Amino acid sequence: MPRTVVPMSHRVLDSARATAAGPPRVTPVAGRIGAVVSGVRLSGDLPDGVVARIWDAVLRHRVLFFRDQHHLDPAGQVEFARRLGEPTAAHPTLPPLDGHEHVLDVGDAPGRRADEWHTDASFTDRPPKASVLRAVRVPPHGGDTVWANTAAAYDGLPVELREVADRLWALHTNRYDYVRPHATGAGRRRREPLTTVTFETEHPVVRVHPETGERALLLGGFARSVVGLSDRADSQALIRLFQEHVTRLENTVRWHWAPGDVAIWDNRATQHRVVHDFGDRPRSLHRVGLAGEAPVSVDGRRSVPRTGPAARPGLAP
């Protein structure tokens, strides 16, 4: 039977096992986002109190990093993820890892580069609330992932720009050239499933976080136009203006992967991207997403799906 998700009201370690092992140690690694957690062996059998502490840290630091989780396999990763929420299908259009319906192999095939800033599956009406990513095979150098704090980006806006952003909505879609134009055969073949089903969703540019109440910018590479603006240049200029606030270095953290590393991030308050500086060296990471809710604007309206199977949230590469 699936384990019950731990309520946020559980704030104290309530297990003899957890007391014996001590609480997780959380060490920030950047000023506005990111922390390393030590003293935890991730599994589906973690005490409820430890799970609650981990989730509290996710909400506080946006992305957490765990070293040396070599014991995890795809099934174990899913079982741990299930303690934090309900796993989604691996992806709305891409096939899952063989034998594991909730796991997406985030590999970088020739000609395919997931190196644009994005929030996972923001082209769906209910993007995942969080993602759990495990390093399986990584290059000895290069191939880092960078995350940005979209709540800090909103807080850093001048008041006048916040007022503009609060009123804007953007159209997010998976219909665009995600694979670079120079892609050869392998890249083109990998692109085909991405556009088999077209998703289009109108999201508020500013969403209210359902657990913390914070406001965060919801943009990234899947945001292609501002709703209600007919002039393409004006639309792109507005998106670029707010997106550049998200990706300011002060709002980011960069992680160099080692096999066995695990990252967990709040998909409702972050964007991320890979740094594609590792050439043709192999890189494979396994990701599990957790089902989320429809984003809500500052005036209480929910996101509106235009096209695509609205009931199939998933993950974007």
Could you characterize the architecture of this molecule?
The strands form four sheets. Strands 1-2-3-13-5-15-4 form a seven-stranded mixed beta sheet, with helices on one face. It starts with 15 loop residues before the first helix and ends in a 10-residue tail after the last strand. The chain has seven helices and 16 strands. With 317 residues, it is α+β, with helices and mostly antiparallel strands. The chain has a single domain, classed as 4-Layer Sandwich (Double-stranded beta-helix). It is globular, with a radius of gyration of 19 Å. The N terminus and C terminus are likely disordered.
In brief:
By secondary structure, the protein is an alpha+beta fold.
Topology:
Elements: H1 16-21, E1 25-28, E2 35-38, H2 48-61, E3 63-66, H3 74-82, E4 104-107, E5 130-137, E6 145-149, H4 150-155, H5 159-167, E7 169-173, H6 185-194, E8 200-204, E9 206-208, E10 215-217, E11 223-226, H7 232-246, E12 252-255, E13 262-266, E14 270-274, E15 284-290, E16 304-307
Keywords summarizing the entry:
globular, four-stranded antiparallel β-sheet, single chain, alpha+beta, 7 helices, 317 residues, disordered C terminus, seven-stranded mixed β-sheet, 22% helix, Double-stranded beta-helix
